[in-house]
Amino acid sequence: MHYKRILLKLSGEALMGSRQYGIDPIRLAEYASEIKEVVDKGIQVAVVIGGGNIFRGVSGASNGMDRVQGDHMGMLATVINGLALQSALEDAGIQTRLQTAIKINEVAEPFIRRKAMRHLEKGRVVIFGGGTGNPYFTTDSAAVLRAIEIEADVILKGTRVDGIYTSDPEKDANATKFDKISFQDVLNKGLKVMDTTAFTLSQENELPIVVFDMNTKGNLLKLVSGENIGTEVNL
Ligand code: UDP
Fold first, then answer.
1. What structural domains and CATH numbers belong to the chain?
2. Which residues have CB under 6 Å of ligand 1?
3. pLDDT class for 169, splitting at 50, 70, 90?
4. How far is the CA of 141 from the centre of ligand 1 (A)?
5. Which of the chain's ends, N or C, has fewer CB atoms near its CB within 10 Å?
6. What are the φ/ψ torsions at residue 64 (nearest 5 degrees)?
7. From the CA of 228, how far away is ligand 1's center (Å)?
8. How much distance in Å is there from the Cα of 190 to the middle of ligand 1?
């Protein structure tokens, strides 16, 4: 296998599937089975999940809500998604733990780095909920932070598109895909991979990011097996 320990970042919106809002149980089950395929190969899997399908702090703020209050709601939304994913993974027969950056002890473990690493070593999927626990951050930043902390080999950012393109492939028919690109080239070309805070943290810590299409069955396994899927951002 190409990687030993991965951090998979899934956006909240991805969980909507064909819905306008919330969680699509079919999509959730599909993701669980994709994750199971790689767990069964002995890969250690941590997951950071977004909350955009339920609430985003910035959209609250644009409607006059206090930004920090909205961000707290967004963080709780990621915990809701984490619980949903945990349930789907357990239905698929995978052992899991949900650890949150904000303490909700009756619901999930608090984030404890050493514990998280121990769970991974035992083959449990660890889901990190609550983002970084701080307002004004995103779950992309949480994904990079946790990946560095748990010494993951890579961040796999599952998206609707199959990689990083010269321009938005959903808008520009002439857009072409990169197989590999350096952090510096992403910045020089003004390409959008993650928000700047998350991207810089990854670059500074030399943590590679692979952007790939999580909605095509079998892609996650192909990726961890070393197939050239998606776009790798590296030094
Ligand atoms: N959030 C936050 N701090 C974090 C991570 C998330 O305040 O460390 C809040 C923020 O309001 C954000 C929301 O949670 O809008 C949902 O996360 P995100 O937008 O990253 O989800 P995604 O776009 O991946 O679905």
1. 5-160+184-234 (3.40.1160.10)
2. 11-13, 50-52, 56-58, 70-71, 74-75, 77-78, 131-132, 134-135, 137-139, 141-142
3. confident
4. 9
5. C
6. 95, 0
7. 30
8. 22
Question: What is the chain's Cα-based Rg?
Answer: 17
pTM (2 d.p.): 0.97
Cβ count near 11 (within 10 Å) = 22
Q: State which ligand 1 atom lies nearest to the alpha carbon of 12.
A: 25
